[in-house]
Design goal:
Layout (H helix, E strand, L loop, with lengths): L8 E5 L2 H6 L6 E2 H5 L4 E5 L6 E5 L2 E5 L5 E3 L5 E2 L1 E5 L5 E8 L2 H11 L6 E17 L10 H4 L4 E17 L10 E8 L5 E19 L1 E5 L4 H4 L7 H8 L1
Parallel strand pairs: 1-14
Antiparallel strand pairs: 1-8, 2-7, 3-4, 3-8, 4-5, 5-6, 9-13, 10-11, 10-13, 11-12, 12-13
């Protein structure tokens, strides 16, 4: 097995601080990213949609909320992937908001000091997603770019919700806490998840004890001014 695709290992391209700062240049192709795992989330070059890697296939959510499959020659500025292999599965019924779901998941995990991947399949009584809009050069910081984002809400939708929980000590490198993307079962709807409720779903959990991050190899990253953008990240993610 390719050592970069070992289950329970997380691979990340770039830092969340770099992305929020406006570094949207493509750093790695989807073809190479697939060599790192079969499951993950991210975005595309120029913030051209939300990226979801599900069972080895890449999907882009467009600004209108629609989803389509991507060719592997596209590039991304930021992504987090793993070779998904669950070690526990749980059933969740009638959990009525994101905050309660996070509390429930926190009680399932062994420690808040390691990474976890989560893969939900089921029916969601409510799903609120958002999708970024493609940016043109010169790129704006994300806090400005998300002014153009589109928000969608769905009721009684069946599909896949997936993402990661990162420890608090990766602040600046990734988003501490939970970060999910959604794709409907029919692969027609999706996006970055900002709120959801579960009617009936199974969640598979993978504990990830190894984290590998690759930094962008370009002048924009080399010259980036490193600042504390934690407040901006919280606003972008909510």
């Amino acid at each position: 097995m390719d050592e970069s695709k070992i289950p329970n290992h997380i691979y990340q391209m770039s830092t969340i601080n770099a992305l929020v700062s406006g570094l949207y240049d493509g750093c790695i192709s989807l073809n190479k990213l697939l060599q790192k795992g079969n499951f993950g989330i991210g975005t595309f070059k120029g913030l051209d949609g939300e990226l979801t890697l599900l069972n080895g296939s890449f999907y882009r959510t467009r600004p209108d909320g629609s989803v389509y499959k991507c060719t592997k020659n596209e590039f991304v500025p930021f992504a987090v992937v793993t070779e998904f292999e669950e070690y526990r599965t749980y059933s969740i019924r009638d959990c009525n908001c994101y905050a309660n779901i996070k509390k429930y998941l926190d009680n399932l995990i062994e420690s808040k000091n390691v990474f976890y991947a989560f893969y939900f399949n089921g029916v969601f009584s409510h799903m609120k997603t958002k999708t970024v809009v493609k940016q043109n050069l010169p790129y704006r910081p994300m806090l400005n770019a998300i002014r153009d984002q589109h928000v969608f809400e769905y009721d009684e939708v069946e599909g896949h919700l997936m993402g990661f929980r990162c420890p608090s000590f990766v602040e600046g490198l990734n988003v501490p806490g939970y970060h999910f993307h959604f794709i409907s079962k029919d692969k027609k709807l999706g996006g970055h998840v900002s709120e959801f409720s579960i009617k009936n779903a199974d969640v598979r959990i993978q504990k990830c004890s190894c984290f590998r991050m690759e930094l962008p190899d370009n002048e924009n990253f080399y010259n980036m001014k490193v600042t504390n953008r934690n407040n901006e990240i919280k606003q972008v993610e909510k």
